[in-house]
Amino acid sequence: MLLIEYEANTPVIAQMLQLLAAFFISYLLVSLIVRFKNWHGRLSMDRDLGGVQKVHAVAVPRIGGVGIAAAVAMTSIAYAALNPFTLNTQALMLLACSLPAFLSGLVEDLTKKVSPSIRLVTSMIAALLACFALRAVIGHVGLSFVDALLYFLPVSIVFTVFAVSGLVHAINIIDGMNGLASVVAIIILSSIAVVAWQVGDELVMHVAVVAIGATLGFFAWNYPVSRIFLGDGGAYFIGFIVAELLVLLIERNSGVSPLYAILVSIYPAFETLFSIYRRKVLRGLPAGAPDAIHLHTLIYRRIVEIGAPMRDLRAVNRRNSRTSPYLWTLTLGAVVPATLFWRSPSLLMAFVAMFIVTYIWLYQAIVRFRTPGWLRQTGR
After folding, report:
1. Which positions does UniProt annotate for Mg(2+) binding (predicted)?
2. Residue 2 placed within a domain
């Protein structure tokens, strides 16, 4: 009887072991990066503290993505060696497809000379590789007139490439506060893992769980005091994994509504779309121009920072860490209903509309200095 119960729980135990392995590998690798920053700091440090979008007090390495990507790869390779099945081969193929996006971001982290357009192209190349290597192609979105166009493979491939690369860059856009992008990714990946478990998609669940563990290992060094940043490489890697897992989950499991993918990732996705609208339409600036009026920077400057001394480095770090929970909560407001109602397009659409209304209301309230009192923090 005990043997039967153990065998029934073996997949869960295996997933937990993979999560723990990825966590400890990532934690160790990131600790080594932090420990030996004097060796590589000339290249890896983020010293541009005066940039318009910067809110950090001291320079730290911005190559935390190396620890995450290496931990995911090492855990997946070890698991594939012990369990040489098709799904493990596919997991490694997914990691291989991520290389163009990850490496272009990493080179930017080290040289500060890779243009946004080149990084966009490399993320598109990564998405295109996944289209052919894993058949990760969006074939339907739940709208008949769009689905009629997506029936044609070239159209669906182009649509997939733009959707994936867009979400890759969306994760990078929200990477501005201690623990923000990493925890948002963990929340989304946790939802993906839960839904994948419910529909029996072992590939998606495996990669999501390993990515969660690796990101947690980085998070331990990034919050509440940041000793290391994700960097573009880390943000692109996590963004690519999230985007591709969503494509695979939707296309491999007909019971999962395409609106689930929209709702579960709506915070970074809508932040990006809204930023493009602000820059191009309202301000007449290039879509990729940096600015200091993302929602997270507004919360930092107009809710958390008010009345606090800027010369106190510990206070700056403390305020930075106090900003992220606002956006974690906002993310949970979308991810929880997405996880509960992944089968129901009507409920998912209602929550998508609710999120958009909430986001715009919150943004306008902060911009117009009408922030509700219950959002303000009194302790410093």
Report:
1. 172, 232
2. no
